Automatic annotation (TrEMBL):
Family: Belongs to the cytochrome P450 family.
InterPro entries assigned to the protein according to its UniProt record, in alphabetical order: Cyt_P450, Cyt_P450_CS, Cyt_P450_E_grp-I, Cyt_P450_sf
Entry's transmembrane regions: none
UniProt entry keywords in alphabetical sequence: Heme, Iron, Metal-binding, Monooxygenase, Oxidoreductase
Domain of life according to the entry: Eukaryota
Listed name of the protein: Uncharacterized protein
Organism of derivation: Hibiscus sabdariffa
One of the Pfam families matching this protein, by short name: p450
PROSITE patterns xref list: CYTOCHROME_P450
Length: 138
Protein backbone atom coordinates (compact mmCIF):
# COMPACT_ATOMS: atom_id res chain seq x y z
CA UNK A 1 0.00 0.00 0.00
CA UNK A 2 2.76 2.44 0.89
CA UNK A 3 6.00 1.88 -1.04
CA UNK A 4 9.04 3.61 0.41
CA UNK A 5 9.74 5.28 -2.91
CA UNK A 6 6.85 5.98 -5.30
CA UNK A 7 9.14 5.81 -8.35
CA UNK A 8 11.78 3.17 -9.09
CA UNK A 9 15.25 4.24 -10.17
CA UNK A 10 15.31 5.62 -13.72
CA UNK A 11 15.95 3.13 -16.50
CA UNK A 12 17.27 3.86 -19.98
CA UNK A 13 15.54 2.31 -23.01
CA UNK A 14 18.19 0.36 -24.93
CA UNK A 15 16.08 0.16 -28.11
CA UNK A 16 12.96 1.78 -29.54
CA UNK A 17 9.95 0.07 -27.97
CA UNK A 18 6.18 0.15 -28.19
CA UNK A 19 4.42 -0.08 -24.84
CA UNK A 20 0.62 0.05 -24.49
CA UNK A 21 0.33 1.99 -27.74
CA UNK A 22 3.10 4.45 -26.88
CA UNK A 23 6.49 4.63 -28.56
CA UNK A 24 9.45 4.83 -26.20
CA UNK A 25 12.47 6.09 -28.18
CA UNK A 26 15.90 4.57 -27.68
CA UNK A 27 17.94 6.21 -24.86
CA UNK A 28 14.81 7.65 -23.17
CA UNK A 29 14.75 7.77 -19.38
CA UNK A 30 11.89 5.62 -18.09
CA UNK A 31 10.45 5.97 -14.58
CA UNK A 32 8.23 3.20 -13.18
CA UNK A 33 5.50 4.47 -10.84
CA UNK A 34 5.25 1.68 -8.23
CA UNK A 35 2.66 3.64 -6.26
CA UNK A 36 0.31 3.70 -9.29
CA UNK A 37 0.86 0.01 -10.06
CA UNK A 38 -0.29 -0.84 -6.55
CA UNK A 39 -3.49 1.17 -7.07
CA UNK A 40 -4.40 0.08 -10.60
CA UNK A 41 -8.09 -0.97 -10.59
CA UNK A 42 -7.54 -3.08 -13.72
CA UNK A 43 -5.19 -5.29 -11.68
CA UNK A 44 -6.59 -5.06 -8.14
CA UNK A 45 -10.11 -5.27 -6.78
CA UNK A 46 -10.56 -2.41 -4.28
CA UNK A 47 -7.01 -1.14 -4.89
CA UNK A 48 -7.14 1.53 -2.18
CA UNK A 49 -8.15 -0.93 0.53
CA UNK A 50 -5.55 -2.83 2.58
CA UNK A 51 -6.51 -6.48 2.01
CA UNK A 52 -3.53 -8.83 2.45
CA UNK A 53 -5.88 -11.81 2.08
CA UNK A 54 -6.16 -10.99 -1.64
CA UNK A 55 -2.85 -12.82 -2.11
CA UNK A 56 -3.98 -16.10 -0.50
CA UNK A 57 -4.01 -18.81 -3.17
CA UNK A 58 -2.65 -16.52 -5.90
CA UNK A 59 0.52 -17.13 -7.86
CA UNK A 60 1.77 -13.57 -7.25
CA UNK A 61 5.06 -13.32 -5.37
CA UNK A 62 7.37 -10.48 -4.30
CA UNK A 63 10.41 -11.88 -6.12
CA UNK A 64 10.15 -9.65 -9.20
CA UNK A 65 8.41 -12.10 -11.55
CA UNK A 66 4.94 -10.54 -11.29
CA UNK A 67 5.01 -6.94 -12.44
CA UNK A 68 1.65 -6.18 -10.83
CA UNK A 69 3.45 -6.35 -7.48
CA UNK A 70 7.10 -5.31 -7.37
CA UNK A 71 7.91 -4.00 -3.88
CA UNK A 72 11.53 -5.13 -4.17
CA UNK A 73 12.07 -4.18 -7.81
CA UNK A 74 12.60 -6.76 -10.56
CA UNK A 75 15.14 -8.27 -12.90
CA UNK A 76 18.81 -7.61 -12.41
CA UNK A 77 18.08 -4.52 -10.31
CA UNK A 78 16.08 -6.45 -7.73
CA UNK A 79 16.78 -5.58 -4.09
CA UNK A 80 19.92 -7.40 -2.89
CA UNK A 81 18.38 -7.65 0.61
CA UNK A 82 15.35 -9.66 -0.60
CA UNK A 83 16.57 -13.09 0.59
CA UNK A 84 17.41 -11.72 4.03
CA UNK A 85 14.06 -9.91 4.25
CA UNK A 86 12.17 -13.07 3.30
CA UNK A 87 13.95 -15.07 6.00
CA UNK A 88 13.88 -12.49 8.78
CA UNK A 89 10.39 -11.00 8.35
CA UNK A 90 8.57 -14.04 9.75
CA UNK A 91 10.95 -14.38 12.68
CA UNK A 92 10.83 -10.70 13.67
CA UNK A 93 7.08 -10.31 13.20
CA UNK A 94 6.36 -13.55 15.07
CA UNK A 95 8.61 -12.46 17.96
CA UNK A 96 6.88 -9.07 18.25
CA UNK A 97 3.38 -10.58 18.07
CA UNK A 98 4.27 -13.30 20.58
CA UNK A 99 5.91 -11.01 23.13
CA UNK A 100 3.49 -8.06 23.09
CA UNK A 101 -0.14 -7.07 22.85
CA UNK A 102 -0.54 -3.93 20.76
CA UNK A 103 -2.83 -0.93 21.08
CA UNK A 104 -3.14 2.27 19.08
CA UNK A 105 -1.98 5.52 20.63
CA UNK A 106 -4.79 7.77 21.80
CA UNK A 107 -7.26 4.90 22.15
CA UNK A 108 -8.45 5.13 18.54
CA UNK A 109 -9.93 2.10 16.79
CA UNK A 110 -8.37 0.57 13.64
CA UNK A 111 -11.23 1.95 11.52
CA UNK A 112 -10.30 5.50 12.58
CA UNK A 113 -6.69 5.33 11.31
CA UNK A 114 -5.97 8.10 8.79
CA UNK A 115 -4.53 6.33 5.73
CA UNK A 116 -3.88 9.52 3.74
CA UNK A 117 -0.38 9.99 2.39
CA UNK A 118 1.93 12.94 2.01
CA UNK A 119 4.23 12.86 -0.96
CA UNK A 120 7.84 13.78 -1.20
CA UNK A 121 11.02 11.95 -2.09
CA UNK A 122 9.49 9.04 -0.18
CA UNK A 123 5.85 8.24 0.57
CA UNK A 124 4.82 8.73 4.21
CA UNK A 125 1.55 8.63 6.07
CA UNK A 126 0.05 12.09 6.61
CA UNK A 127 -0.34 11.20 10.29
CA UNK A 128 2.27 8.65 11.42
CA UNK A 129 0.86 5.45 12.90
CA UNK A 130 1.72 5.17 16.57
CA UNK A 131 1.32 1.85 18.38
CA UNK A 132 2.05 1.00 21.99
CA UNK A 133 3.45 -2.41 22.93
CA UNK A 134 1.99 -3.92 26.07
CA UNK A 135 4.23 -6.61 27.56
CA UNK A 136 2.58 -10.01 27.77
CA UNK A 137 3.36 -11.66 31.11
CA UNK A 138 3.64 -15.41 30.95
Amino acid sequence: MHPTLPLLLPHKASTDANFCGFTVPKDSQVLVNVWAIGRDPSIWENPNKFMPERFLGSGIDVKGRNFGLIPFGAGRRICPGLPLANRMLHLMLGSLLNAFDWKLEGGISPSEINMEEKFGLSVQMAEPLQTIPVLVLE
